[in-house]
Specification:
single chain; alpha/beta; Rossmann fold; about 45% helix; globular; binds cytidine-5'-monophosphate
């Protein structure tokens, strides 16, 4: 399935809070590659549903919304502004509640199908870092390098707690842990594109690792496989 005409793709999958977002962004920046934050597309679909009064169990209407999402990702000084129908929704779609709603719409097969072509369009030269749950298994099964990042649920809850604290938001560690466990269960048990490592993915447990450790490790793997020059 590997086509010489297609740009290289590095897929980074794993549960929420394993560090995928930060690590994918840093690697894309280092390599000058494009970045696909696929979770944002599910979050945006749920957000658009609320805006247009579509119920989260109306699968055909949600799929239509997903297919026609009017979204622009604007890269700006190390961050990305996310515009939905001209409105900056970057903060609104990052809340725990928005993640929960995203996980509900992500369980619907027609929504996943509707977002497939849009995700594949991100694959452009010189390369793509694709961050999500099913990047290596479904969206880019021919990706030459696939990473599956994990961390214990306790560590992921702790990281999220610190992030929220830094943002000046109140949070409870024990309720964050419960939410993370519930979202993991839904993402792993759904019938379509469940969260699981691709057979050919490299699994990396980040519980005891720092972000620069993980970025260096992935960069070495890319260099070993000849996608980038050795450092
Ligand atoms: O990665 P993020 O937390 O933004 O994803 C939000 C939700 O979107 C996840 O909990 C998951 O249910 C869903 N998702 C997915 N497939 C992806 C990316 C995200 O099902 N490729």
């Amino acid at each position: 399935m590997n086509s010489p005409h297609q740009a290289a793709v590095l897929t980074i999958d794993g549960p929420g809070g394993a560090g995928k977002g930060t690590i994918s962004r840093l690697i894309a920046e280092r390599l000058g590659w494009h970045l696909l934050d696929s979770g944002a597309l599910y979050r945006l679909t749920a957000h658009a549903a609320a805006k247009h009064g579509v119920m989260l169990d109306d699968e055909p209407a949600l799929a239509r919304l997903a297919e026609t999402l009017d979204v622009t990702f604007l890269a700006e000084d190390g961050t990305t502004r996310i515009m939905l129908e001209g409105e900056d929704v970057g903060t609104a779609i990052r809340t725990e509640a928005a993640g929960e709603r995203a996980s509900q719409v992500a369980a619907l097969p027609a929504v996943r199908q509707a977002l497939l072509a849009r995700q594949r369009d991100f694959r452009q030269a010189p390369g793509l870092v694709a961050d999500g749950r099913d990047m290596g298994t479904v969206v880019f099964p021919d990706a030459p390098l696939k990473i599956f990042l994990t961390a214990s649920a306790e560590e992921r809850a702790r990281r999220r707690f610190l992030q929220l604290q830094e943002a000046g938001e109140s949070a409870s560690l024990s309720s964050l842990l419960k939410e993370i466990q519930a979202r993991d269960a839904r993402d792993m048990q759904r019938a379509v594109a469940p969260l699981k490592p691709a057979d050919d993915a490299v699994e990396l447990d980040t519980t005891e690792l720092t972000i620069p450790d993980v970025v260096d490790h992935i960069q070495r793997l890319l260099a070993d496989q000849g996608f980038i020059p050795s450092a």
